[in-house]
Amino acid sequence: MLNLANKQHFYLAKVLVVICSGWLISGSVYALDVSSGQFIQTIYPEALEASSTFTVNDFFDDTALSTRLRNDLIQDIVLGPAPLNTNTFMYNIHGTDFVAGHPDRVPGINSFPSQFQFEADNVLNHASMGRLGLGGVMRFDLPPRPDGTPRYFMLGDWTIEYNTSRTQDYNFDGDINKPIHPADYQVSGWFLRNHIDFPTIVFDVVNQTTFSNSDSFYLSGELAWSHEMTRAFFPETELYRNVSKFVLCAQDDNALAEQDIEQIPCVFPSISLNGKSGNVNISVPETINIAVDLGVASTEQYSNADYFAAFVYQNTLYWLNSDFQWTVHQAAAYQGPLIDFRHIDLPSPAQVIGSLPSGTAIPFYFGVDATQNGQFDAPYRYVSATLQVN
């Protein structure tokens, strides 16, 4: 069994070197260019209607938009009739070569290509200089006019942008008696700018989570009314009201294709040791706290997946089994669909290896694959962190 464990350790370590070497090169030297992706929005219907009187009437994705003029978006029915049977809507993230399909939709005024670079270990390094272009327009019902005439409102053709000025304190509507502290609302600096009918910032992203890897990045959070939108349409009490949530994956298709091993697109495992990633130092007898996260930002359903957690100590590979116990026998910690989750605590390795002597280095791994067979096989994604005991 020890020989088998050593072979498994060697294989896993070899794969890790290949992946991490490419990650370090692309992350530290080359900027990646967003060429595709998805933005998946889930409306909070009760919060939306209570805040704005808006109710979602219909949604036009890139395909629906390519054959329609502006007035068609008021009259046509795609998903309806309202009320719709879903609150979740998917927008394409455009590549740099995107051109709006209909000649009357005017690329650069309504629909935008993406112009966004990122680094594998630093999504924000170039963020303030770029934008992500989304394809999709949402139509809302408003209360009818007194004579019964229906009223509609449209938002969409979004660009997603980033600027740290969104997080800075300001006075609402310029009134010094109404100071606003965006940090109190977890404002992130990311925002969505509307380009259908009127160009303005509609949503600030709050409660954000970001992950990245060697070919893509993940962003999730909630969408809250911006101060621009609130000043124009709503009472001040609606400022930063959360009315939907979202998850986004933006990827460099060339970087994904160049991976040496087949990777699951838009899936982002993360592991932390005592709240930190990468190389983490502790001093004896400090406690080890291990936590994992998984970002899933895809409409593709991975319903039969394996989840693995492992660590290496004194040339032995330990696996976490479905009872959440460490074992030298290869095992999946969980089998089932890939789901988006935050902070699941894993048991301490002390349960099997006891106290740690100074000078010990222990690599930990967390990964998922797309084939539910108890074997860690491609396509997959995994990450590592190393514990250094002082």
Which descriptors apply to this entry?
single chain; alpha+beta; Immunoglobulin-like; 390 residues; 39% strand; eight-stranded antiparallel beta barrel; elongated; disordered N terminus; 7 helices
- Alpha carbon gap, first and last residue: 30 Å
What spatial order of strands do you see in the largest sheet?
2-4-6-8-11-12-13-14
Low-confidence stretches: 1-11, 13-29
Helix content: 10-25%
Per DSSP E runs of 2 or more residues, the count of β-strands stands at: 24
The Cα radius of gyration reads 24 Å
How is the main sheet built?
A: 8 strands, antiparallel, barrel
Oligomeric grouping of the chains:
single chain
Strand content: 35-45%
Number of domains: 2
Average per-residue pLDDT, rounded, comes to 89
Class derived from helix and strand content = alpha+beta
Count of alpha/pi helices: 7
Q: What would the principal axes of the Cα set say about the shape?
A: elongated
Write up this protein.
- With 390 residues, the protein is α+β, with helices and mostly antiparallel strands.
- The chain folds into 2 domains: 2-28 and 262-389, Immunoglobulin-like (Sandwich), CATH 2.60.40.10; 32-256, no CATH class.
- The chain contains 7 helices and 24 strands.
- The chain has helices at 2-28, 45-52, 62-65, 72-75, 227-233, 253-257, 350-353, and strands at 32-33, 36-43, 55-61, 88-93, 117-118, 132-142, 151-156, 159-162, 170-171, 179-180, 187-194, 200-212, 216-225, 242-251, 267-273, 279-282, 290-296, 305-313, 316-320, 326-327, 334-336, 341-346, 361-369, 380-389.
- The strands form 5 sheets. It has an 8-stranded antiparallel beta barrel. Strands 16, 18, 19, 20, 21, 23 and 24 form a 7-stranded mixed β-sheet that branches. Strands 15-17-22 form a 3-stranded antiparallel β-sheet, with no helix packed on it.
